[in-house]
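I hope you will forgive my troubling you with a question about protein structure. The record follows directly beneath this note:
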Amino acid sequence: MDDNCLFPIKDGEKIVEGFLQKNLPEEDWTHEAHLIVGLYFLCHFEKNALAEMRINLPEYNVSIGKTNTEQSGYHETMTWFWLTYIYNYFNENFDDIKWNQESLDELLDSELLTERNAWREYYSDELMMSINARQNLVPPDKNPINSIF
């Protein structure tokens, strides 16, 4: 393993395992952890990544004592956006998305991906924060984005 790696793949695997087993501590469920899980799901479930996230994210929320309501918890459009954004980023930079150290380093080193508010280039706050966007997949109202889902 390269000593210059940002985040060892074994640590990424621990985050994914904790997420899937529903025992990842809430304080470890950071934006970066969301990205790591998104990359993993894209690599392992491909076009079914969104369907798998629709199952696993609400269950994880419940496991850490959160509720999935009109105001909190699972957000359909945000989940779709980030999976799409990760996919498009890697699709433009690699021949294929891979679950490996190189991809994990690229994911966590990318200012585009680590910018938590990247969605604002595509969505207005009003639309993204709406109940409709939380419950349903709504298209961007500012700029279009290509999606595989």
Remarks:
- The chain has eight helices and no strands.
- The two ends are 34 Å apart (CA to CA).
